[in-house]
Amino acid sequence: MRKLILVSLTLLLVCSAAATNLQAQQPSATPGPLTFYYDYTVHAGKEDELTTLINTVGAPVRDKLLADGVIMAWGMETPILRQPGGTTHLIWFTVADYAGLEKVLNGMEAQLAKLAAAEARARPKPAMTTAERGRAVFDGTKTRDWLTRDLVAGFGHPPAAGVLPVTRYNFVKVKPGKGPDYRRTWEKYNKPVFDKLVADGVVLAYGLSAEDVKTDGDWTHFVWIATANMAAADKIGPAFAADRARRSEKDRNEITEAFLDATEPDKARSLITRSRIFKLAPQK
Question: Do 130 and 180 belong together in one domain?
Fold first, then answer.
């Protein structure tokens, strides 16, 4: 990657941008929202069973808490690129704080207990209990949970009814001790471009996030970018290219070096997903 010309490398790093080492950050006076991700591998041919599980277990709980204002948004996504043994489905929900997270997790436990009790009383017995269905649908050895927090975020108008966003996740590893420098650089040079894309209606929302409970060493932070469709994503790269092109060569070189100095470029990875379920809390 270091052999790429400076401008191209800048654009790649922009699209891979994440920020800062969480340990090195000063605590925010107003912490950003938390997002809980269920990272699943669903056995081939079990997609309909997954839909049944969502409709009977997760959706009733999340929809109620969405209406109550506890959940800010929730959805289910599938990656557009498949890989052997890789994630097939992501289910996520966003809450303001840990109190909200606890309400969701308690609600899920209560729903599972309620279903199990009803199945135990049922006559005749169901062909498959909810617990058995879950074991049949998911490869439990690959299930992974993530808890992330937005450090920076921007939101436009809610998408039109029926729109299922496309989201790109760009992961990067920031070098130890370089977090504050990286975040300052990212917010100075990247955030204004994203804000304009939001204002222009190209990007629905974006965020600069990190694990709030650190579990992974391959990356430190990530950027997520939601658009109404893939066509909108075509406009993001040119917007960054135009921003860099209006700067002097000296400035472009300094931006590139700032990102290179703070990150490990060979660790950068990306994921693009399509929403299959997407719900926002009612606007007040």
Answer: no
Q: In terms of residue numbers, what domain contains 252?
A: 1-32+151-276
pLDDT beneath 50, residues of the chain: 1-27
* pLDDT mean across residues, the chain: 90
pLDDT at 81: 96
Residue 59, C-beta contacts closer than 8 angstroms, at least 6 positions apart: 277
192 Cβ contact partners less than 8 Å away, ≥ 6 residues apart: 243
The CATH number of the domain where 232 resides is what? 3.30.70.100
The answer on 102 and 76 residing in a single domain is yes
Whether 281 is in a domain gets the answer no
Per DSSP bridges, beta strands 205-211 and 144-155 are antiparallel
Residues whose CB is less than 8 angstroms from the CB of residue 5 and which lie 6 or more positions away in sequence, other chains included: none
Supply the pLDDT for residue 29.
56
